[in-house]
């Protein structure tokens, strides 16, 4: 995350960040770049490198919230095949996959309450057990209304103009962009969702599969926002970007959120290919420990 005036240039295989001094970071070590200042200039070779190395590049608005993401245009060898599979997905399969996503989201919300030492875990588990294929009873909505009240207080709503909501929106946007990058990299079309289907949303599929990852953001925000202020502080934004390196549990082991996104998308491709919703691998929230660097 770059929060001061800077010029970004490519020097060989590294990103050169020119400020008072010049810092160099190998492109192969970067997953996400967040441009968090109005006086940052970027060269075309840097954009090309972001595409070549699969880096998500976020721009921010005047309110410092992520407002856009640059995604690589990848000529996937089987993109047409995946498109056909996405277009022909049956309604029962889509509903089964959505039901699995909602169950794991509520499961993670319950885990978040327990990890944050809040009440309500068992009520959320009860909601999870009532989720059916397609979630016709909207247990997702009922669980959310209970969950946010337990986590942030009975007066909290997602529509309020508060620092908590600013932090949640920031963290969700970072993870959503990383998911969109992963979908494109695997040849999937992000606009074709399983449940979300807005014609004005280019990221319907990303908005489907982000759901079990949201409680990772919720848990971090519950620990870092101590008082209301006008804006998120740079260190708070850095923590939210750093969530991509927090460990979650996947069916094949513990890994970072960024690696879990890749594994989840690989499993989603198998769902389309094998027409089996049970192949979808989703993350389990286990805390906020960062994945050890190799």
Give descriptors for this structure.
294 residues, alpha+beta, four-stranded mixed β-sheet, three-stranded mixed β-sheet, 45% helix
Describe the protein in words.
- The protein is of the alpha+beta class and about 290 residues long.
- About 45% of the residues lie in helices and about 15% in strands.
- The chain is built from 10 helices and 10 strands.
- The strands form 3 sheets. A 4-stranded mixed sheet has the order 3-2-1-5.
- Strand 6 and strand 7 (about 65-70) form a beta hairpin.
- Helix 3 packs parallel to helix 5 and helix 3 runs parallel beside helix 8.
- The longest helix is centred in the middle third of the chain and has 25 residues, at about 90-115.
- The chain starts with 5 loop residues before the first strand and ends with a strand.
- About 35% of the residues are buried.
- The model has no long low-confidence stretch (mean pLDDT about 90).
Can you give the mean pLDDT? 90
Strand content: 15-25%
Instruction: State the order of secondary-structure elements, H for helix, E for strand.
Output: EEEEEHEEHHHHHHHHEEHE
Reading side by side through the largest sheet, how are the strands ordered? 3-2-1-5
Biggest beta sheet summary: 4 strands, mixed
Proportion in helices: 40-55%
Shape: globular
Q: How many separate helices?
A: 10
Q: What is the strand and helix layout of this fold?
A:
Layout: E1 6-11, E2 14-18, E3 22-26, E4 32-35, E5 40-42, H1 44-53, E6 56-60, E7 66-70, H2 79-87, H3 91-115, H4 121-129, H5 139-152, H6 163-185, H7 204-209, H8 214-224, H9 234-241, E8 246-250, E9 253-256, H10 257-274, E10 284-290
Helix pairs in contact: 3-4, 3-5, 3-8, 4-5, 6-8, 6-9, 6-10
